[in-house]
Amino acid sequence: MNKQYATPEGTLAWFNKFENMPSNTIEKLGISCSAVGFGTYRVNEYDENHEEALKEALSNGVNLIDTSSNYGFGQSETVIGNVIKECIGSGEFLRENIILVTKAGYIQGPLIDDIKAKSERGKVVPDIVKLEDHLWHCIHPEFLANQLDQSLKRLGMETIDIFLLHNPEYFLESAKTKHTPHEAALSDYYDRIKKAFDYLETAVKEGKIRSYGISSNTFVTSKTEYTHTNLSRILELAPAELYPSFSTIQCPFNMVENGAVTCPNQSDNKTLLECANLNKLALLANRPLNAIVNNALNRLTDKPVEQPVYEDDLNDTLENLSGLEDRFLNHVLPVLDCDNTYEERVRAEIHISQRFHLARQHVASSQGWQLYVQGQVLLPFEELVETLFSNLTFSQMDNVWFNEYVTTLQETLKLFLAYYNNIDAPFADSMNVMIDHLAPEFSELETLSQKAIALLTHTKGVSSVLIGMRQPQYVEDVINGINQIEDIDVNITKWITIKNAITNSFTQGN
Predict the structure, then answer these.
(1) Average confidence (pLDDT) over 455-481
(2) Which of 182, 365, 405, 499 is the most exposed place for a label (fewest CB within 10 A)?
(3) Which residue, 368, 298, 211, 286, is CA-closest to 38?
(4) Based on the number of CB atoms within 10 Å of its own CB, is 362 exposed (0-12), middle (13-18) or buried (19 or more)?
(5) How many angstroms separate the CA atoms of 495 and 458, rounded?
């Protein structure tokens, strides 16, 4: 009978089939994972490309899929479940060939409303950390049990291979703002992690998960930082003989943010990667192409050649967009047969142009712009459209205004993307030159993204590099790069050289 989780035999058979895909071993489970994994941070049910990209990745040997309960408010897990069910049903592979990683901890969007409603009925979820009105967090066993069941349901699976606590350091972020003494906060923090591990060992025995771990952005920071998560301390609290199913950690790792291999922040002056390897823990690297530089998110990808976009160009297109909004309020809205509620909603939602002005104040890179535009432009526009067409008079009009507005919005989006691509181009060019100089063995690779990924996949001890491959062309770029370079080891000496060169570059303002 086929197993409903990844097995050593099943994953070994996978790589016998896909011989060109490099693989590593997740030691605690004895299973083989592809050197690159399919990251699903921005995957949703509405874009067919996301599903096609996942199928493309699977058909090229990628067998590790990383998701989280909060990605797309659960839509990411639903897409993954649908694709796997379809592929298993068609005989393309077995469940035991594929490694599923998901996470829990975030409370956002509809989940906040759900928890508020439960609280009003007397069902209070313990140990919630409220960072902002729209961002809560929790790793209490009761919450984790609920989230695990929801993830299994969305994925349509009996068992998840690796279940991670998702950024538990939010507890420390909250404690810091409250000026809690550091050691008191740390004591509480690691106690919460230990209680979560106790529950997760139970979930393993129940067959709901095969193993567990932690995904933390602060694994790689200096151990003196208030929000630092220390793997050595966790291992002291949760020794392998008592917590045998603690299998995996996940952290940011890219050529700029290289603390996983260059920062000796663990006991005995070890780095995170060294500590993980010594304790037979898999290390999954996230954000391989998204580098945070001076508090701005920069993409380690080649930028398309764009025509110059000047401030006056942005001002002109925003003036056109704002003018159309004013035209609607002054000439279209007054002739609609609508009530006060409709009018108030339209007046509150129509000023999309103002969101572009805010972007110019707060967004500094193309990656930052792409994240901003999803939540702060496109979603509000969808809400505006839904509101507008809820009015019968408007929906029956010959909507010359609406067509003109949509066209102008599309032109504005295109112009802003070109503007931010031009901002990022010098950074991408400098990173390309730096890799070619410091790691000439990768210079034959065609794209900056391929080179940036290769640095990580050729670092011994990195189990899998998680890449957001939401479009089929992104999958093609990754696969083309992964198959070109063999038998190269990017060691600690090489990484120290890269770290020093990047530090000097930023210090000099290049």
Answers:
(1) 96
(2) 182
(3) 286
(4) exposed
(5) 11
Q: Which pLDDT tens digit goes with each residue over 470-497? A: 999 999 999 999 978 778 899 999 999 9
The Cα 29–Cα 18 span in angstroms is 21
**pLDDT > 90? residue 370:** no
Token pair listed for 203: 């979930």
Tell me the whole-structure pTM to 2 decimals.
0.84
Cβ atoms of 164 and 213 within 8 Å: the answer is yes
Q: Which H helix or E strand runs over 297?
A: strand 296-299
Per-residue 3-state assignment (H helix, E strand, C coil) for 104-140: ECEECCHHHHHHHHHHHCCCCCCCCEEEECCEEECCC
Q: Whose structure tokens read 């901890």?
A: 105
pLDDT in tens, 188-234: 999 999 999 999 999 999 999 999 999 999 999 999 999 999 999 99
Q: Which residues contact 163 (CB under 8 A, 6 or more apart)?
A: 101, 102, 103, 104, 148, 151, 200, 203, 209, 211, 212, 213
**DSSP-assigned beta bridge partners for residue 66:** 39, 101
Q: What is the pLDDT of residue 510?
A: 47
Q: How many CB atoms lie within 10 A of CB 342?
A: 18
Contacts of 301 (CB under 8 A, 6+ apart): 289, 428, 447, 448, 449, 452
Of the candidates 148, 180, 152, the residue with the CA atom closest to the CA atom of residue 166: 148
Range list of H helices, 206-302: 231-237, 259-262, 272-278
Measured from the Cβ of residue 16, the count of other Cβ atoms closer than 10 Å reads: 9
The residue to which tokens 């070994």 are assigned: 12
Helix crossing, 448-457 with 472-482: angle to 10°?
50
pLDDT of residue 503: 83
- The alpha carbon of 2 is separated from its chain's Cα centroid by a whole number of angstroms, namely 31
- Count, residues in the chain: 510
Give the residue among 449, 448, 510, 509 at the shortest CA–CA distance from 478: 449
Instruction: Using a pLDDT cut of 70, give the percent of the chain over it.
Output: 98
Tokens of 483: 């198959």
List the structure tokens of 112: 């906040």
In 241-281 the beta strands, taken as DSSP E runs, fall at 246-252
